[in-house]
Design a protein that fits this description.
The complex is a heterodimer of chains A (about 450) and B (about 400).
Chain A: E1 2-5, E2 23-25, E3 32-34, E4 44-46, E5 53-54, E6 59-63, E7 70-72, E8 77-84, E9 90-97, H1 112-119, E10 126-128, E11 142-146, H2 157-161, H3 168-178, E12 183-188, E13 199-204, H4 212-217, E14 228-232, H5 233-245, E15 251-257, E16 265-270, H6 275-279, E17 289-293, E18 300-302, E19 314-319, H7 346-349, H8 373-376, H9 384-392, H10 396-401, H11 413-418, H12 425-440
Parallel strand pairs in A: 1-13, 2-16, 11-12, 11-14, 12-13, 15-19
Antiparallel strand pairs in A: 3-9, 4-6, 5-8, 6-7, 8-9, 10-14, 15-16, 17-18, 17-19
Helix pairs in contact in A: 3-5
Chain B: H1 2-15, H2 25-35, H3 54-83, H4 91-124, H5 131-142, H6 149-164, H7 177-188, H8 190-193, H9 222-227, H10 246-251, H11 263-275, H12 281-300, H13 313-318, H14 322-329, H15 340-360, H16 368-401
The chains are: A alpha/beta (about 450), B mainly alpha (about 400).
C-alpha cells in the first residue's frame, strides 16, 4: 500500500453532476447492440447469422486471428440485423430481446484464460502496448486495475459495482494465477477497498489519475517487450463472479449526466441497451444536444436511435453548439468562457466552479506553438509533444524511444482538451499505435 | 452582429471555388474566423475544448507589447524635440510626433508581412495563421526609427519568406522572424543601422516638428558611445551631450530602437506575459540571470581595450535591447527550447552570449540580437540532449528489467 501523488492533470467541473447514489431501474431494453469498434484489436468473424436466436453469454463473433476470443450477446433474443458500413465493416449487431432469461453457464475448472476468452470478458480487458484487446493467451507481466474513474462527471465505480463488490477477491485470485507479477489496484484517496492479495496504491491528484495506464506508469512503467493488462474494478468483479457462479452478468449501472440532462442519475440497465430505454424522457431537446456514450473526453458521439457503448457505464449529454456565431470569441472577457489558461478570465471566478461547455472546438487547427501544454496534462515521464511529433512524422524508432508503449489514446484526452493548437491528439495516438502494431507483427 | 453575420453569409459564395473572388478565399476565411468563433464542433476525440486558441495567445502578446510601443512613440518625440532644442515641448506633442513617425513603419510591416502570409495561405489553401500579428508589431519596435521604409519592407519580406514560409509557416520556423528582419537590415545596410543618424529622428514627421538640430547634438545610443569610448573614464550622454544615469536608461529617456529603451514598459509587458502564462518564466528569468552573471564577471575584470567591461552589471542590462530581447524575443516558444530543462540552459546561454558579444566584440555594440539568433540555432540541439536523457533512462529501465 503506497500513496502516489500526481500533480499534473486537471479536473474539469461540468454542470449536471449526479447528486445522489440511488440507482433507478429502467424498463427492459427494446433493442440491444454490440458494436465491434468498442473492442479494438478484435477483427470480427460472425458466428451467428441474422435471424438466429442467441442466449445471454452466447458468442456472436470471434476474432479473425484468434478463434478463442469471443464477443458475446448480452441478452437473450434474436439477431435482428448485422448492420454493415463501408467495405462490409460491421457497424453493429442488433438483437431484439425476448422474454427468455437463460444464461450460458461456463465450466470454470479449465484454463482460466480459455474461460475468460469464451465468456466474452476477455474482450473487456486491454493490453499495453497498443491499447487493444489482448490478442493472444500471453501471460502479462502485471495487471493494473483502476478502482475509480476520474474523468469529468464520471460515475462513482463503487455505485456501478453495487453488490458485485463481493466478487472482487475471487477476481484477484483468478488474475493472480494468470500473471507472474502483481495485480495492482489503484484507488483514490479515502476509497475503501477489500482486496486481499492485490497491491493497492492510492492515487492523489486530478484527472487522469484514474486511468489505469497512468497508474501503471507511476508504479511499474511498461517497457519495450512488456505486456500488461489494464481493466477497471467492475470488470474485475465480473471476472470474480464468473469464476464463482459460472455465469457472467450483463447488467450494468450507467451514470446519465451532463448539462442537458434534466435529472442526472444512475440507472440500471443491460450492456448495449438502446438509448431510448436508457434515457427515456431525457431525449426532449435532441437537436441542441450531443449525446456521448462515455465521458466528454474519451466517449463516442451517439445518436438517440443508437445504443450504449463499452465500457457501458456512462452517458453524458452536453450542448452541441450553445453559442452559434459567437462574435469575436477570442477577444472575450467573459469569465464563463472556460479556459484553464490565464489568457482568459475564467481563473478570476475560480476553475472549480461547475461550468457549461459545448462541443465547439473554439479555434482552428494550428502547428504546435505553446510549450509544455501536453506535459502539464500527462502525469507520466514522457515528453508528450515530442512523442506526438514522432507519431505525426511516422518515425517508428523515435516513437518507441519516447515511450509509445506506455500510452493509450485516453491518456492524451485531457491534453487534447487543453491544446491551444486544437490537434486531434487521440486520433493521432491511435493511428500511431495501430501503425506500430502493424509494423511489429 | 446579426447584420454582420448576414453580410458575411451574403458575400461568402463569391469567395468559394468558382466564385469571382475565389483567389481571396483564405482572406475571407481569415476575416470570418476573426469575427466569429468557428461553429465547427469536434468530430473525433475529446468533445469539449478549452476556450484558448492561437488568436487569443498572439493577441495577448500584442497587448503585452503595447506599453513598450506607447513609450517608444513618446520617446521618439522626446529625443526629437531634445535634438532640435525644444525640450520644453508638451508630452502630448512629443507622443503625437512619435506616433506619426512610427505609424508608417507599423503599416509597412503589417502590409508586407500579412500580404505575404495571405498569399502563402491561399497558395497552400490553408487558414491564415496568426503568427505575424506579433511579428508585425515587433519589427517596428526593434528597427531603428530612421531606417527608410523600403528597407524595412525588403527586410520584412525577406524574413517572412525565407525565415518562415519556406519552413512551413507559423510554428515551423527555426529563427525568430522579427530578429531575422533586423539582422537582414543590420548586415545588408550596416551604415544605416548604427552611429549618429540611426536612432534619433531629426527631420519632421508628416510636416510636424520641423526645426534645426542643436550644435551639440550626438545621436549615438549609450551602448554605441560605450563601444567607442577611449580611456578609463566612462560617461554616457544624452543627445545634447549631457550626462545620463542608469535611472534615465531604466525609465527609457535614451536614444535607441523604439521599443527597447524603457525598462519599465518592458517589465509591464513581462508581467502580462508571465501572469497569463504565455511566456516561459524559465527562459525569461534565466536570460536575466545569465546576463547579470556574465556582466558581473566582465565587470570584475575591467579593461580599457573593452570599454563595455567597465559598465556595472545593472546598467549593462538596462541598456540596449537586452531586456526587450529577454522578455519578447527569447521567450518565443517556436524558436526557443521546448523542454523544461532545456529552457534554463537556453535562457542562460542567451544572457551570457549577449554580454559576451557586447563586451568583447566591439564591432557589434548590441549583442542581444546575435545571441538570440545563435541560440535559436542551438535550441533543437539542447532539446535533443534533454530528450535523449529521457530516452536513455527508458532504455536503462528496460535493460535492468531483463
Amino acid at each position: 500500500m503506497s500513496i502516489v501523488k500526481l500533480k499534473k492533470g486537471f479536473d474539469i467541473h461540468l454542470l449536471g453532476a449526479i447528486q445522489s447514489d440511488n440507482v433507478a431501474f429502467t424498463s427492459p431494453a427494446r433493442s440491444v447492440a454490440v458494436v465491434p469498434d468498442d473492442f479494438h484489436g478484435v477483427i470480427p468473424r460472425m458466428e451467428k447469422k441474422e435471424g438466429e436466436h442467441v442466449i445471454a453469454g452466447e458468442p456472436l463473433y470471434h476474432d479473425k486471428n484468434n478463434e478463442d476470443i469471443k464477443v458475446v450477446a448480452p441478452v437473450c433474443g434474436s439477431i435482428k440485423e448485422v448492420r454493415r458500413g463501408v467495405r462490409r465493416h460491421i457497424d453493429a449487431i442488433i438483437i431484439s430481446p425476448d422474454s427468455d432469461s437463460s444464461v450460458v453457464k461456463h465450466n470454470t475448472g479449465g484454463d482460466p484464460m480459455q474461460v475468460l476468452m469464451a465468456s466474452g470478458l476477455w474482450a473487456m480487458l486491454r493490453q499495453r502496448p497498443y491499447d487493444v484487446v489482448p490478442p493472444a493467451a500471453v501471460r502479462p507481466r502485471d495487471v493494473f486495475v483502476t478502482a475509480f474513474d476520474s474523468a469529468p462527471l464520471a460515475p462513482d465505480l463503487n455505485v456501478v459495482l453495487g453488490d458485485k463488490r463481493q466478487y472482487i477477491g475471487r477476481g484477484i485470485e483468478v488474475l493472480k494465477s494468470l500473471t507472474d507479477g502483481n495485480v495492482y489496484i489503484g484507488v483514490r484517496e479515502g476509497q475503501e477497498i477489500n482486496a486481499p492479495g492485490a497491491q493497492v496504491n492510492t492515487f492523489v491528484g486530478p484527472h487522469p489519475a484514474g486511468n489505469a495506464g497512468v497508474q501503471a506508469a507511476n508504479t511499474v512503467p511498461v517497457n519495450k517487450g512488456d505486456v500488461v493488462w489494464t481493466l477497471d474494478i467492475v470488470t474485475l468483479a465480473r471476472i470474480g463472479e464468473l469464476f464463482t457462479t459460472g455465469m457472467v452478468s450483463h447488467d450494468t449501472v450507467v451514470a446519465v449526466d451532463g448539462e442537458m440532462v434534466q435529472e442526472p442519475r444512475y440507472v440500471k440497465t443491460v450492456m448495449g441497451a438502446d438509448l431510448e430505454t436508457v434515457l427515456k424522457n431525457e431525449l426532449t431537446n435532441v437537436a441542441k444536444s450531443r449525446i456521448i456514450s462515455g465521458n466528454v473526453l474519451t466517449g463516442v458521439k451517439v445518436d438517440p436511435d443508437q445504443w450504449l457503448r463499452a465500457p457501458y457505464r456512462h452517458i453524458t449529454i452536453i450542448p452541441e453548439n450553445s453559442q452559434p456565431d459567437e462574435f469575436m470569441g477570442w477577444a472575450s472577457f467573459n469569465p464563463s468562457r472556460f479556459s484553464i489558461y490565464r489568457t482568459f478570465t475564467t481563473w478570476l471566478r475560480g476553475l472549480k466552479k461547475p461550468v457549461s461547455m459545448d462541443s465547439r472546438i473554439k479555434g482552428g487547427e494550428r502547428a504546435i506553438v505553446r510549450t509544455g501544454e501536453y506535459d502539464a496534462m500527462l502525469p507520466m515521464e514522457i515528453y508528450g509533444e515530442f512523442l506526438i511529433k514522432a507519431i505525426i512524422s511516422g518515425d517508428i524508432d523515435k516513437m518507441e524511444q519516447l515511450g509509445i508503449y506506455e500510452i493509450a489514446p485516453e491518456d492524451f484526452a485531457l491534453a487534447e482538451f487543453a491544446d491551444t493548437s486544437k490537434l486531434e491528439l487521440q486520433r493521432i495516438v491511435r493511428e500511431g499505435l495501430d501503425k506500430l502494431r502493424a509494423e511489429m507483427s | 452582429m446579426k447584420a454582420l453575420r448576414n453580410f458575411m453569409n451574403k458575400i461568402e459564395p463569391s469567395f468559394r471555388p468558382g466564385g469571382k473572388l475565389a483567389k481571396l478565399e483564405s482572406v475571407y476565411d481569415g476575416m470570418e474566423t476573426f469575427l466569429f468563433t468557428p461553429n465547427a464542433t469536434s468530430r473525433s476525440g475529446a468533445h469539449i475544448h478549452d476556450g484558448n486558441d492561437l488568436k487569443r495567445t498572439m493577441i495577448t502578446v500584442v497587448v503585452a507589447l503595447i506599453p513598450a510601443l506607447l513609450f517608444g512613440m513618446y520617446n521618439i518625440g522626446y529625443q526629437h524635440y531634445l535634438a532640435i532644442g525644444e525640450p520644453s515641448t508638451g508630452w502630448f506633442t512629443m507622443f503625437l510626433y512619435g506616433l506619426l513617425a512610427l505609424l508608417p513603419v507599423i503599416v509597412v510591416s503589417y502590409v508586407v508581412g500579412l500580404g505575404i502570409e495571405f498569399i502563402s495561405a491561399q497558395i497552400h489553401h490553408k487558414e491564415i495563421q496568426e503568427g505575424f500579428l506579433v511579428t508585425g508589431i515587433l519589427i517596428p519596435l526593434i528597427v531603428p526609427i530612421n531606417t527608410p521604409l523600403w528597407m524595412t519592407a525588403v527586410a520584412t519580406a525577406f524574413a517572412v519568406i525565407f525565415a518562415k514560409e519556406v519552413f512551413g509557416g507559423t510554428g515551423m520556423n527555426i529563427f525568430n522572424v522579427a530578429l531575422i528582419t533586423r539582422a537582414f537590415l543590420f548586415f545588408a545596410y550596416p551604415s544605416r543601422m548604427s552611429g549618429d543618424e540611426a536612432f534619433v529622428k531629426i527631420d519632421s514627421a508628416f510636416g510636424m516638428g520641423g526645426g534645426t538640430v542643436v550644435d551639440t547634438f550626438t545621436g549615438a545610443t549609450p551602448l554605441g558611445q560605450v563601444a567607442t569610448n577611449v580611456g578609463d573614464q566612462l560617461q554616457m550622454t544624452n543627445v545634447l551631450g549631457e550626462p545620463i544615469s542608469c535611472m534615465d536608461a531604466f525609465i527609457g529617456y535614451i536614444p535607441g530602437s523604439p521599443g527597447e529603451t524603457s525598462m519599465i514598459a518592458i517589465l509591464i509587458g513581462a508581467a502580462i506575459l508571465l501572469l497569463t502564462g504565455i511566456a516561459s518564466w524559465r527562459i525569461m528569468c534565466s536570460v536575466f540571470v545569465g546576463g547579470l552573471g556574465m556582466a558581473a564577471l566582465v565587470h570584475a575584470l575591467p579593461s580599457v581595450t573593452y570599454p563595455a567591461s567597465m559598465l556595472d552589471p545593472v546598467t549593462q542590462l538596462c541598456l540596449g535591447g537586452f531586456a526587450f530581447g529577454a522578455v519578447f524575443m527569447a521567450t518565443d516558444p517556436v524558436t526557443g527550447a521546448r523542454t523544461t530543462v532545456g529552457q534554463y540552459i537556453y535562457g542562460l546561454l542567451i544572457g551570457v552570449f549577449a554580454i559576451l558579444i557586447r563586451v568583447y566584440n566591439s564591432g557589434y555594440p548590441e549583442g542581444m540580437m546575435l545571441a538570440i539568433l545563435l541560440m535559436n540555432a542551438f535550441a533543437p540541439l539542447i532539446d535533443h540532449c534533454v530528450v535523449s536523457s529521457n530516452i536513455k533512462r527508458r532504455a536503462r529501465r528496460a535493460a535492468t528489467k531483463e
